[in-house]
Specification:
Elements (H helix, E strand, L loop, with lengths): L1 H17 L5 H5 L6 H8 L1 H12 L1 H6 L11 H8 L4 E5 L2 E8 L2 E9 L6 E10 L4 H17 L2
Length: 150
């Protein structure tokens, strides 16, 4: 008899799991409130992160979104950044390089098929020391240059 009651319980569990509509007992179950305190424990961490970021200038530069340079025409880039340090032709496109101290900005320009005017397709900001901190510094330097209009 005990063995048969175990089969009944197993069958009820199987039917509950495979039925398209939830059973009354399954819908009566609610998530345990233990989830809410876990979310409450996570909330103080973001509040502490901005304080730590403000303490370090390099970390503060990480919060600045990188500038968007794609889609600009040659004339717009020259007005914004000045003349490039070097220009290389790589048909059908070309590459402009801007150097400033330990920072390099490489811009890939390609002609628009309709207007034949060159525009920015991609760019890369690099630091001579090849570190994340150096790259953040270079991005901040580029952002300052753009905001200053050179």
């Amino acid at each position: 008899m005990l063995l048969l009651s175990g089969c009944e319980a197993m069958r009820a569990d199987f039917e509950r799991l495979t039925s398209p509509t939830p059973s009354a007992s399954a819908s009566a179950r609610k998530p345990t409130p233990a989830v809410k305190p876990a979310a409450a424990r996570v909330a103080p961490k973001p509040a502490a992160a901005p304080a730590a970021a403000a303490a370090s200038p390099a970390a503060a530069a990480a919060d600045v979104p990188p500038p968007v340079l794609t889609g600009y025409r040659e004339s717009q880039l020259r007005a914004m950044l000045g003349p490039p340090t070097s220009e290389e032709s790589h048909p059908p496109g070309k590459q402009w390089r801007y150097r400033n101290g330990k920072c390099t900005l490489d811009i890939q320009l390609y002609p628009d098929v309709e207007t034949k005017q060159y525009g920015t397709l991609a760019y890369k900001v690099k630091s001579d020391d090849d570190t994340d901190e150096g790259r953040r510094f270079c991005l901040a330097q580029l952002q300052s240059r753009i905001q200053a209009g050179r």
